[in-house]
Amino acid sequence: MITKILIANRGEIACRVIHTARKMGIATVAVYSEADRDAMHVRMADEAVHIGPAPSAQSYLVIDRILDALRQTGADAVHPGYGFLSENRGFAERLEREGVTFIGPPVGAIEAMGDKITSKKIAAEAGVSTVPGYMGLIADADQAVRISGDIGYPVMIKASAGGGGKGMRIAWSEAEAREGFQSSRNEAMNSFGDDRIFIEKFVDQPRHIEIQVLGDKFGNVVYLGERECSIQRRNQKVVEEAPSSFLDEATRRAMGEQAVHLAKAVGYYSAGTVEFIVDGNRNFYFLEMNTRLQVEHPVTELITGIDLVEQMIRVANGERLALSQDDVKLDGWAIESRLYAEDPYRSFLPSIGRLTRYSPPQEGHQPDGTITRNDTGVEEGGEISMYYDPMIAKLCTWAPTRGEAIAAMEDALDDFEVDGIGHNLPFLSAVMAHPRFLTGNITTAFIAEEWPLGFHGVEPDNDQSRLLASVATFAQLADDSRKTKISGTLANHTRKLGTDYVVVAGKHDWPITAMCEADSIGIRFEESVSHIVASDWTPGAPHGRFTVNGHTLGIKIAKAESGWRLRWKGIDQILKVMAPRIFELSHFMPAKKVRDTSKQLLCPMPGVITQILVIEGEQVEAGQPLATVEAMKMENLLKAEKRSIVKSVKAQIGHSLAVDEVIMEFE
Known about the structure:
This protein is α+β, with helices and mostly antiparallel strands.
């Protein structure tokens, strides 16, 4: 029987494994790098061992250091989580030689399915539908271009040992194939220590749908329904749901049965995921098999009631599955939104820093019958490092129907408070409210199609604008009311609050009349639109629940620029509540000048310069690559915006730069 588990990982997945192990009465050991010395998973575990410097290549990816931690603590099993060493055949073999139980699949399955080229050949032999492509290894960019032309554009360039969107590019032309091959190769080497690349046909209008499988060491394998993971950016999943609104029962069964056949063909046991690409006619093609726990596993747990980590531990311990395929029932709908440390207003560039505010919504069963779950590995005051993946939490909601699950997610996102770093909460709210998402009309190109020029926030409609204007007025009156309560010798002095105001939001302004009642404020607009606003919010609180005409809303609120910054459903707006005379005079205020950076290449994110591709005095053309910056395990290629001449290069390869540091200047 397993008595002590070492988790060879960090962050939210380490915390997730500890949670189940604790429930099962099993002791846990955390490992940590220098950057994670004060991390949540370190404090949650029964024991913790330091394994090296911050870079994962010097800590979490060093097998010998993990084995040293095992020997120090006497742990008799290892759960690898996902990423890092989770699909490393050599790691599983070393554990086997050490007599330590690996909470995962057999070495043979890792070898067969962990390599995308080999896995496609095995899948084809097992009768699984596969995508057309070139399964051999590709030596250089010239060969990549020739193969891409033979297959026909668009093509997908992928790292053989990849996962999580790392080392993956879509190429629509010869130039993109050449450039994408090199970038994929670099990312693959940096993330997995393996730069092998292959190319396959990119299916237009695709959906990414995956099947969760679970097997034991006695040959029993079941599938636990599917997950739709089509909301992606740069091939990185952002929103997942279970089940898929697109599949019918016949397609679900066919995909599930093929996934089970593939698992049995390689003697698979433990939890695993078979990923498919599905076209608009519900034709499906095998992409890869992930021989590990998936990031998005919570949505499967929410609709099946099965703890996948517990099942992995029991299978590793030699137990038979306690359920058959007929026992698997899908109940309700679950959605997962990944909270990333990235700035959606700056092309989703990674963001690092300290979490000055981190307050997730209340977890568990809600009064309306829905469920909220938040898997995380951070807390307020924690540091988001440049060395690791930018995902900091997974917010999940469950409800009986898809529409109710989306509504629950909208409310949960509105109640999630994060400050101190750039984050994608506004973007996640925008996805939830988007008409295409609401109807389930989505593909993996959804984000690129709906925000082709980048995300710039949600523009409120007239009803939303007036609603926020009413909340801002409530906040202003609450703040003014507090200021009238003067203590000391002037205790009886009061200042009468006005009733006429003008609320300014961007290019809009609304004259309003506000009337204070005993427990609410009545607000009337010129157009005869009226709102009754009530709340127990007090000035200074960063979040409030406001009831407007009987509907309760969670709104993030803060003082800003002589007004109020309100954030709600992806809208991020500053509203100023002024007396009519002040509004008249405000038109005479001079506008601030914006800094001119048109002749500079600025570092768009905290990161390390890995390539400088031009020299001083060189003439560059629009679209020409200038430099690459590596941040949070992703390589970012910076290109020229217009034709120019390089005046000076300020940065050097290997330098760590902060946001907006100058990389080079142009004439």
